[in-house]
C-alpha cells in the first residue's frame, strides 16, 4: 500500500463520517455536497473526486453502516437463535440511533426505482438479510423449534419486512411503538422454544 | 350549496386527480405544481389558490386515497375476519397500482418528522388502521379464533407494519415478493380458523 493510496482511503473515510453526521442533522434532502465538504475541511471539487454525486456518497454511508452492523452484531454466527437475537440487538441499537434509521427508511423508499443509485444496494441488502434469517429458521425447523405450519422462507421475508415497517411507524410515533418488543413477540409466536 | 362553491370543489377535485397522475408518472420529487397546473389546464396562481404548497396537495391526494380505499373495500364492516379480508383485498388492489404505493411509501418515510406537512396524516392513518385491525383481532380472540399467546394489539401493530414493509420490498423486487400471499400467510398463522 503506497502512502498516497492510504491517504486517499483515509480521506474517503473522513468524508463518509462527515456525511453521516450531516445527514443526521439536516436529513438527506436538506444536506448538500458543499456542506459535507465544508464539514470535512476540503474543497467541493476535492469531494467530487471521491464521490461524483450526492447519491454515490449516500450509498457509501449505507455500505459502511452494513459493514459496521455485521462487525458489531457478529451477524456471521452459525444459523439459529443467535442470528435472530443479533437482529433484535440491531433493532435495539437502531432505537438509540434514530438519525440513521430515518436515513435508511427514506432512501429505501426512494431507491425502489431500478435506476436509483442506491437500488442495487437495497436489493443486495434485502437478499442478504432474508437469506440469513431464512437459513436460521430452516435450522430451527430441522430441530423442531419452529411452529408447525410456519414456512422458513416466508417467515424470513415477514421478519425483515416487519422490521422495516415497524421502524417507519416508530419514527413517526416513537412513544406508540415498541420496536424491540414487537420483533421479540413475532419471533416468540413462530418458535416452540423460549426466545 | 352555491354554484361558485360547487365549481370550486370540482376544480379542487380535478387538481387532485391531475396530481395523482403526475406523481405516478414522475414521482413526487420529480413533479412540480407548475406541471400539475398545466395538466389540469389552469394557471400556476390558480392552483396556488387551492393548494399553497406542494406538500398540501400531496396530503390531499393521500386523504382522497384513504376515502376511496374505505369506500371500495368497505372498511366499515363489523370487526372480524371480513375486516382482515378487506385489508388483504386492499393489498391486492395496491399490487395493480404500484404508482400510488410508491408515492405512499416515499411520503411515509419523509413524513416521520413532526414538522412535515403530511405528518399528522400519517399519524391518523396508522392509528385508524391499527385500531380497526386491533378491534377485529379482539373480536376473533373473544370467539376463540385467535391462537393462544397472540395479543390482539401487538398482532394489529405487526400486521400494519408488515404491510408497509412488504410494500417497499415488493416495489424494489417485484418478482421476489408475494405481497398478498405473505399477508395471508401471516394471518393464517395467528388464526385458529381457515382464513
From TrEMBL, chains A, B:
Alphabetic keyword roster: DNA-binding, Repressor, Transcription, Transcription regulation
DNA-binding region: 32-51
Domain HTH tetR-type: residue ranges: 9-69
InterPro entries noted in UniProt: BetI_C, Homeodomain-like_sf, HTH-type_TetR-like_transc_reg, HTH_TetR, Tet_transcr_reg_TetR-rel_C_sf
Keyword check for Cell inner membrane: no
An example Gene Ontology molecular-function term: transcription cis-regulatory region binding
Record protein name field: TetR/AcrR family transcriptional regulator
Amino acid at each position: 500500500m503506497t502512502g498516497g493510496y492510504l491517504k486517499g482511503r483515509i480521506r474517503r473515510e473522513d468524508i463518509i463520517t462527515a456525511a453521516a453526521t450531516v445527514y443526521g442533522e439536516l436529513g438527506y434532502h436538506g444536506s448538500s455536497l458543499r456542506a459535507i465538504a465544508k464539514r470535512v475541511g476540503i474543497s467541493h471539487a476535492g469531494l467530487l473526486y471521491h464521490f461524483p454525486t450526492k447519491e454515490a456518497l449516500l450509498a457509501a454511508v449505507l455500505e459502511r453502516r452494513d459493514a459496521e452492523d455485521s462487525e458489531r452484531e457478529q451477524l456471521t454466527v452459525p444459523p439459529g437463535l443467535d442470528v435472530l437475537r443479533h437482529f433484535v440487538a440491531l433493532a435495539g441499537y437502531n432505537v438509540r440511533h434514530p438519525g440513521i434509521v430515518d436515513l435508511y427508511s427514506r432512501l429505501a423508499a426512494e431507491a425502489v426505482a431500478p435506476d436509483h443509485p442506491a437500488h442495487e444496494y437495497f436489493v443486495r441488502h434485502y437478499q442478504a438479510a432474508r437469506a440469513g434469517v431464512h437459513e436460521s429458521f430452516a435450522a430451527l425447523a430441522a430441530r423442531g423449534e419452529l411452529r408447525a405450519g410456519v414456512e422458513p422462507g416466508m417467515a424470513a421475508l415477514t421478519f425483515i419486512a416487519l422490521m422495516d415497517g415497524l421502524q417507519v411507524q416508530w419514527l413517526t410515533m416513537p412513544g406508540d411503538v415498541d420496536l424491540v418488543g414487537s420483533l421479540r413477540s413475532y419471533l416468540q409466536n413462530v418458535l416452540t422454544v423460549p426466545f
